[in-house]
Amino acid sequence: MNDNATETDQCYYTSRNISRRCTEWRYDNTTFGHTITSEFDLVCSRAYLRSIYQSIYMFGSLIAAPIGGILADKYGRKFLFTIGATTYFVLSLIACWLPTMPTILAFRFLMGLMHTPTMNAAFILGMEVCAPSARALVGMFFALPWAFGTVIWGALAYFIRDWRWLQFAISVPTVILFPALWYIDESPRWLVVRGQHARAIKILQKAARWNGTSLPPEENMKELMRQTQSTVTSATEEGDPTEKTHLQMIWKKMKNCTKQLFILLRTPRLRRITLVVWMTFMFSSTVFFGLTLNALNFSVDPYIYMIFNGLVEIPAYILPAPIAARFGRKFPIIIGFSVTSVCLLALPFIDKDESTLVVTVAMCGRLLLSSAFQLFFLYSAELFPTEVRLQGFGSGIFLSRLGGIFAPFITELLGPLYSWSPSVVFGVFSLITGSILLLLPETLNKPMPETIAELEKDSPNAASNKKNNLEMENTSPGDTDK
């Protein structure tokens, strides 16, 4: 920029009464040091690349979501987790030193591809090797590292102000995971289904020694495993030779998944549940990720904001279980989203100089949002009948990734124009989410429906229609005339 020029805004300057576009920029390094924005000039006409940098990771995760389960079923949970974690680690290290923005975006996409299959494989493995009574506790502990990681992110970023070294610093600790991979066993359930009974028995015998218990005779165990395997009728799991290639298998299953999605919209009550669940997942995910990225628009210290984001998520992941058991699922979730909406819509009216009050209100919203979001995972799984539970829940998770893609565009593109606008958008999304959940039933202490027919049979409309039919049958022609 010309030193004698008069700056009119961040993208143009006036020289000799002529407005010209800036070609170079000076950056305020008071809060941040060397950032990806300053290194690649992601401002003005290139500002959209900041949003793409955030969203392309979620886009990769979105693409990989339907494929991860297929790979875990074919090659094993531990195998996919090991390959995924190793690949992710290598990609994250290489991404620290890439010289151009296109290559950085490409690696961010690849890291997103690895994220979902790796995490899902680890979660499935944990659920399959623990006792049913411990699954809720294991599931809770599986979510807590996300909160602790957010806190560590904020603390490390405060001391490491160069984005490349920060990326390196949070990538290197992954090496601690690799020795543990040596001691992790494959899921015995998966081994039984795949016919690897001897290997499954060895793992179960080791677990029995650790827990100080005994197992039935080996021959009895093998017979039980053969019976379990015989119930598996999938041609793919049985190694059907008609499956020519793995890519053909993936394509076939994806086509089947697409057909199954239409089943979710087939009947009135199931259609209502499906549409509400889809909207809730997408809107709540947008707000969840948007609040994480919106620190600068709040004009507060981004490092403190990030640390508090992680701290409030710790109780947010612990509290939903006892709340759901005591007060049910539906209304605690509605209250969580509604109060979140109130907090976010109140932020534009708070003086930005009142940073403590801004952070307090924002974190209250984040706490309630995280609790409601966590509880909604349980609630949504209980709403769908067993016949389509996997399709309904899985499609909801798929749409939640879309929310993660949209969030950066709201904070990065809309926020700089009107600092209050992201809070208003996220507040409205939370309000809509809390409102549409009124259309759904409570599931506490109610048996989960097994089939779509059972779901529709128990619906209020079905009961009303049945009552009306009985009244019609018991009404005489003379009564009708009256």
Salient structural properties:
482 residues, mainly alpha, 3-stranded antiparallel β-sheet, 21 helices, 3 strands, 70% helix, 2% strand, globular, disordered N terminus, disordered C terminus
Q: Using only CA atoms, what is the Rg?
A: 27 Å
> Number of helix segments?
21
Pattern of helices and strands: EEEHHHHHHHHHHHHHHHHHHHHH
In the predicted model, the low-confidence regions spanning at least 5 consecutive residues are 1-8, 233-244, 461-482
Major beta sheet summary: 3 strands, antiparallel
Strand order of the largest sheet: 1-2-3
- Percent strand equals under 5%
> Cα distance, first to last residue?
90 Å
Share of helix, binned: over 70%
Q: What is the SS-derived class?
A: mainly alpha
Could you characterize what this model shows?
The chain has a three-stranded antiparallel beta sheet with strand order 1-2-3, with no helix packed on it. It is built from 21 helices and three strands. The chain is 70% helix and 2% strand. The chain is globular and about 90 Å long. It has 482 residues and is an all-alpha fold. Mean pLDDT is 79; it is low at 1-8, 233-244 and 461-482.
